[in-house]
Design goal:
Blueprint: H1 10-23, E1 27-33, E2 43-48, H2 52-70, E3 75-77, E4 84-88, E5 92-97, H3 99-105, H4 107-111
Parallel strand pairs: 2-5
Antiparallel strand pairs: 1-2, 3-4, 4-5
Protein name: Ribosomal silencing factor RsfS
InterPro entries: Iojap/RsfS/C7orf30, NT_sf
Family: Belongs to the Iojap/RsfS family.
Length: about 120
C-alpha cells in the first residue's frame, strides 16, 4: 500500500494513525477535529500507553508505519523520556501519554468543543 507518489489527505493519515494506535493496544484514544479552529493541523489524536516503554513503542511503530505506508515523515519530541511523545505528521498531531501525565496536562479539556464530553 505504498502511496508515497500521491499526497495523503488528513483523513487518510488520521485513519492510519487510529489503526496503528489500536493495533499497538493504545488506550483511551480520542480524536479532536481542529479544522477551522487551529492552524496547527486538521486533527489532534490523544492516546495513552500503560508504561514509558509502551508509549515509546507505540510512537516508534506509528512513525514507521506512516513513513512506510503513506510516505509521511513525522517530527517527534519526547520519545527519550517515554512520559509524553508528540508526533507531528503535518495534518494530524498525535500525543501519546502515560496515564498520569495525560491526567496532569488534560489536553482534551483544553481542545474539546464546549459542551462535548471527552471520549472516555
Amino acid at each position: 500500500m505504498a502511496a508515497a507518489h500521491t499526497q495523503a489527505t488528513s483523513d487518510t493519515i488520521l485513519a492510519a494513525i487510529l489503526k496503528s494506535l489500536d493495533d499497538d493496544k493504545a488506550e483511551d484514544i480520542v480524536q479532536i477535529d481542529l479544522r477551522g479552529r487551529s492552524e496547527m493541523g486538521d486533527w489532534m489524536v490523544i492516546a495513552s500507553g500503560r508504561s514509558s516503554r509502551q508509549v515509546a513503542a507505540i510512537s516508534e511503530k506509528l512513525t514507521d508505519r506512516l513513513k512506510q505506508e503513506l510516505g509521511v515523515i513525522c517530527k517527534t519530541e519526547g520519545k527519550e523520556s517515554g512520559d509524553w511523545v508528540l508526533i507531528d505528521s503535518g495534518d494530524v498531531i498525535v500525543h501519546v501519554f502515560r496515564p498520569e501525565v495525560r491526567e496532569f496536562y488534560q489536553l482534551e479539556k483544553m481542545w474539546q468543543p464546549a459542551g462535548q464530553a471527552a471520549g472516555r
